[in-house]
């Protein structure tokens, strides 16, 4: 499943990136099918809102937390958060100890879709895991986390190189 024969060499070529990309597109399409009735127009908006909804129950959350969680640039996080704010899902509130810092606070409108989002996540997770033994899912999670770590380390290395040029 993660390998295919290449015509040039006749050998198995691991094409993990292509498989992950395909799976990502399928996942986005599936989530859009389940979320048609809400006003969130992109999967990233849904994911960020979900993150804010559930993390804010544990404590304050800030834009830098969103950037770190989703491995996205500041400009991407800013754009996504601006849309969520414009659509009435979040508010940015100043923090007493630092007026420049704004915490992200879900609105009543966002809290109203919490159960819907949670139900959608449960459905998708069940669909993804269907027919796969738990021990294989655990290995899959470990491997995907390591791949993400590898990419993050390489991205930081590349940023350091360009910063020094």
UniProtKB/TrEMBL annotation:
PROSITE patterns: HTH_MARR_2. SUPFAM superfamilies: Winged helix' DNA-binding domain. Pfam families: MarR. GO terms for molecular function: DNA binding; DNA-binding transcription factor activity. The keyword S-adenosyl-L-methionine does not apply. The keyword Disulfide bond does not apply. InterPro entries: HTH_MarR-typ, WH-like_DNA-bd_sf, WH_DNA-bd_sf. Residues 13-149 form the HTH marR-type domain. This is Winged helix-turn-helix transcriptional regulator. It comes from Mediterraneibacter catenae.
């Amino acid at each position: 499943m993660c390998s295919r024969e290449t015509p040039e060499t006749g050998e198995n070529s691991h094409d993990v990136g292509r498989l992950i990309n395909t799976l990502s597109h399928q996942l986005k399409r599936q989530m859009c099918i389940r979320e048609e009735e809400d006003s969130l127009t992109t999967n990233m908006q849904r994911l960020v809102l979900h993150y804010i909804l559930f993390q804010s129950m544990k404590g304050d959350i800030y834009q830098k937390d969103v950037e770190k969680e989703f491995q996205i640039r500041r400009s991407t996080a800013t754009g996504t958060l601006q849309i969520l704010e414009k659509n009435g899902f979040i508010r940015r509130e100043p923090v007493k100890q630092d007026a420049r810092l704004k915490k992200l606070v879900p609105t009543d409108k966002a809290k109203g879709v919490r159960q819907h989002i949670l139900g959608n996540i449960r459905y998708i997770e069940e669909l993804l895991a269907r027919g796969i033994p738990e021990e294989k899912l655990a290995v899959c999670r470990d491997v995907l986390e390591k791949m993400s770590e590898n990419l993050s380390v390489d991205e930081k290395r590349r940023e350091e190189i360009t910063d020094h040029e």
